[in-house]
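Recall the central idea of this unit: under ordinary conditions, the amino acid sequence of a chain determines the structure it adopts. In this exercise we apply that idea directly, starting from the sequence alone.
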Amino acid sequence: MNSKNIQVIKQKKKFLNIFLKNLSKDCLIYEENKIKCKDLLSYICQINRFLKKQNLEKKTIIIQIENRFHALVFYLAAIFSETTICPLDPKLPRSRVNNIKKLINAKTIIKKVNLFEGGIVDFNILNLNNHDFLLTFSSGTSGEPKGIIHDSNNVLGISFSYSKLVNFNRETKILHCLPEYYMAGIINTFFACLCGLCQIIIVNSFNKRSIFNIWSEILKYKINFIY
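Accordingly, the structure predicted from this sequence is:
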């Protein structure tokens, strides 16, 4: 094993240890439900069992999950899998999604995931090696959209760095109001927040119609960081 792979494994273990050392910490709030670190560990294992059962390891899959909380938990679980995920806007036309599926040779499209409380945590099913974790597309403003592959080491490295840069910590309460298929919604307001043990409050995606309602949510949850 070369030094690069050792560093990757250390980084994934570092991320995993955040949950292990803070099992009772409320890290996510969604629709008034408080999700602890120990709950996330259970969900991570549930999804990884699903990926193994469906033979989706080392495959590329498209994610179009409308439930924002379920989508983010799926991405979190995928970090510890061998699967490559391609998050897309659930409202994209089917023809566009089918074209992307063909272009990236995706195995399937995931639109729903069922999670239950109290699932068994089995760390033996988690992948701690680096793998091609995330596939996103450029905006296409300067030509045809281009696919960009991010490995798990890259995503976690950026997340830890950003978390340190903006001083995310246990006292930080951040409003997650960016689309979960958008890089800032995946890294800046999710993975990086978990790296800093922030409390993440998941609300509807920000748009011009919610520009006034969003302030009531900031006050309600006593938000002290907004991106």
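The beta strands are 26-30, 33-36, 60-63, 84-87, 108-110, 132-137, 147-151, 173-176, 199-202.
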